[in-house]
Amino acid sequence: MKRNGLGYLFLALTLGNLSCGDKTLYTNPVGMQAYTFRGSWPQGVEATLDTIKNFGVTEMEGGPIAGIETEELRKQLDKRGIKMVSIGADYNAIVQSADETIKNAKILGATYVMVPWIPHEKGQFTLDVAKKAVEDFNKVGKILKDNGITFTYHNHGYEFVPYEDGTLFDYIVKNTNPEYVSFEMDVLWTAFPGQDPAALLNKYPDRWKLMHLKDLKKGVKGDLSGGTPTTNDVALGSGQIDIPAVLAAAKKVGVKHYFIEDESPSYLAQIPQTIKYIQGLKE
Predict the structure, then answer these.
(1) pLDDT for 164-213, tens place per residue?
(2) Secondary structure (H, E, C), the chain
(3) Domains of the chain
């Protein structure tokens, strides 16, 4: 049969046009924050890891888990093809000494360390608190970098106290050294105090490395407390946050790893919904 070159060209262009706008938005591995399963770990670490694996998770953020030696935890993760990308650390503990955190990160193969909370009196996140955090983060961040680890701070909502022409979160970002300090966006704890997660990602495009994927129940009004009932955590796509816009911005600025964190009592039912939702999103 004689082939028509123009016909093939037309077909290729047609198929190309049909595929435009149909690209998958979320293309990263499915990651999970270990805290999601805080009610499951005491029932059995290996069984919980099996559950996590069965969800299709290949990356985690967490750290040592009670009931299992850290070396054995690494073996069990490797056995299931799960990489512990990032581990959490207590602010006061890591400021006093980063040695234990560095040791655990190396055992687990983590290249990121995340601090999720800056100690402060309730309702009293002040400039002085922010200044101390900046000093401590720069110091700890350098120590971690010297050991091949990236330090990140996980926002928790209370940092968005108005300050000058922005917020105290802006102050922290602008006064920490980008060489030593990066950030992990918690989507819920950005939206809860009234911020736009996508806009904040674009505001500091070179600072975000990690992300907690969470959605906030529709109708919930937020504040600067850094706290809300766990039942306000809902499956992604069923809440009030514009998740497609967040993921598009995160992709644009180069967020490296994403971790689903569902603090709801219904996490086992909501996780599959969340995964199905994000994997079905198109650009």
Answers:
(1) 999 999 999 999 999 999 999 999 999 999 999 999 999 999 999 999 99
(2) CCCCHHHHHHHHHHHHHHHCCCCECCCCCCEEEHHHHCCCHHHCHHHHHHHHHHCCCCEEEECCCCCCCHHHHHHHHHHCCCEEEEEECCHHHHHHCCHHHHHHHHHHCCCEEEECCCCCCCCCCCHHHHHHHHHHHHHHHHHHHHCCCEEEEECCCHHHCEECCEEHHHHHHHHCCCCCEEEEEEHHHHHCCCCCHHHHHHHCCCCEEEEEECEECCCCCCCCCCCCCHHHEECCCCCCCCHHHHHHHHHHHCCCEEEECCCCCCHHHHHHHHHHHHHHCEC
(3) 26-280 (3.20.20.150)
